[in-house]
Each structure stands twice: as C-alpha cells, then as structure tokens.
Automatic annotation (TrEMBL):
InterPro entries, alphabetized: KduI, KduI/IolB_isomerase, KduI_N, RmlC-like_jellyroll, RmlC_Cupin_sf
Transmembrane segments: none
UniProt cofactor note: Binds 1 zinc ion per subunit.
Annotated residues for binding of Zn(2+): 198, 200, 205, 247
Summary of the function given for this chain in its UniProt record: Catalyzes the isomerization of 5-dehydro-4-deoxy-D-glucuronate to 3-deoxy-D-glycero-2,5-hexodiulosonate.
UniProt keywords, alphabetically: Isomerase, Metal-binding, Zinc
E.C. number(s) listed in UniProt: 5.3.1.17
Record-given protein name: 4-deoxy-L-threo-5-hexosulose-uronate ketol-isomerase
Family recorded in the similarity comment: Belongs to the KduI family.
Amino acid sequence: MALHHSTRHAIHPADFKGYDTAQLREHFLIEDLFQKDSIQLTYTLFDRLIIGGVQPVTGPVRLDSFPTLRSENFLDRREIGIINISADSTITVDGEEIALKNKEALYIGKGVREVLFHPAANGADTRFYFNSAPAHHTYPTRKVQLSEAETVELGSLETSNARTIRKVLINSVVETCQLQMGITELKTGSVWNTMPAHTHDRRMEAYFYFELPQDQSVCHFMGEPQETRHLWVQNQQAIISPPWSIHSGAGTSNYTFIWGMAGENLDYNDMDKVATPDLK
Ligand SMILES: O=C[C@H](O)[C@@H](O)CC(=O)C(=O)O
Ligand SMILES: [Zn+2]
C-alpha cells in the first residue's frame, strides 16, 4: 500500500503578495492527486484540512494513518468526506461494504478503524476525492446520494455563470463536526464559478476541478479581494484557499468542481461577498 503525503503551511497574506507563479503553485496548487493503487494527500495547516485522492486499480487501497497524524488509525481524531468521481465502486467501512455511484458521497465519522477503497468490478477507472478535518465528536457514517443534496441554481448564461450547486455534506442533510462539501456543475457555455466572489474568514476552502474537457483549463483567482493573483489549473487538480482569499475561476469551457470547507462554523451562507467592480 502506498500513501504519499506532504504538508503545506499556512501563509500570511502580506507574504502572499510577493509570490511569483512558481511559489503560488507550490503553496496553493495540488497537481498530483491520483496514482495507481495509492493515496496521494496534502495536509494543509489551514484548519488542518487533508485533501486527497485515491485510485484503486489492482486491489483495495486502505486509508492508513501516516506519521503527521501520530494516531494509530487515520480517523481516530478525524472525520472524512469522500466523493466518487468515476465508475460505480465500493468502500468498506469497518467491514460494511457501501456502494457509491458516480458523484455519490460518503461521510465517515471519527473512530472508524478501517476504510478500504475498491476498484470498480468491471475494471473501469476508479477515483475517489476526499477532504478530512479534525473531529471531536462521532457522527454516524452516512452515504448521501445526489438527489438528497440541497440544490440551488445560480447565475445566468448572460453573465457566463449559470451553474447548479449541490450541497452534499451540509448540516441540513448530514451531521458533521466541521466538514462541508458539495459539487458545482457549470452549464454549457458558462465558465465562471463563484462570481460574485467571496471570502469567509471563519472557514478555509479547497476546490477540486474535474470533468474539464481535454485541452481546456481553468484560470483560478485567489488572494485578498483587492490583491488578487491567478493560477492555471488542469483537470483533476485542486486549490487550497486560505480564509482571507477569494476563490473563483473561469474555464476555457464549462467543468465541474468539488468544494470542501472546514473551520469555525457550519453556516454555508456565512460569506462576505465582494462586489465585482471592487475586485483588484
Ligand atoms: O463557500 C462556498 C463555496 O465557495 C462554493 O459553494 C461556491 C460555488 O460553488 C459557486 O458559487 O459556484
Ligand atoms: Zn467559499
């Protein structure tokens, strides 16, 4: 079993201002989330969120602990939200097999000892994306289907931001300690996510871009609203967004992304919106 991990430190916005392209990418872009038969994860010091990808191919991949956690099992002091971004597959949680279709989510609470990710039965490409945050209470493990998500339609084709936001792991649907996760799908011809942009000083956020057609990219904007920078993001890459940063992107086509948050509250609507003409 292979688990590759790295740590990203929390960055002060005054430092961020001086970063060049390479530094921005080193600190905020996660390029390599999927490797055959392994877990690739990034431990960020922003709210200690773990951002990871799993690609089981020849057999099940186990969610093992790793030295940074200093815990026997990965979930001894954590909760995790997992979304299947590929073929229908299964995850075993302490011996119980749970089937997950494409875009279905699984919340697993603190204290579970063994999580196994299985390759799809028909040999199809299997990939899971996950976020994990520290937890101090055990909430039950629960699968959430897309139809159970709190769904809102936002934006319009005229402003190139017509999109469907599915709040999947949200406190009206499932109980969690810190985690919130959802899937936002851009309509054909729409390219802007999260515009008007916002910050939420009480929570950090991670964006994972996928379903981006070949040869297309997303230009992701981050930074304090009056001091923004951009990063070019490719399919199946993620961005770490500090609490002080906007997080908004424009694609060269439409695409889908998974957002995940951890921090001070579970109030999705706790956002400080920035009027678009005020961005700099
Ligand atoms: O804090 C919430 C997150 O940034 C996302 O839910 C926003 C989003 O999906 C969108 O507007 O496209
Ligand atoms: Zn946000």
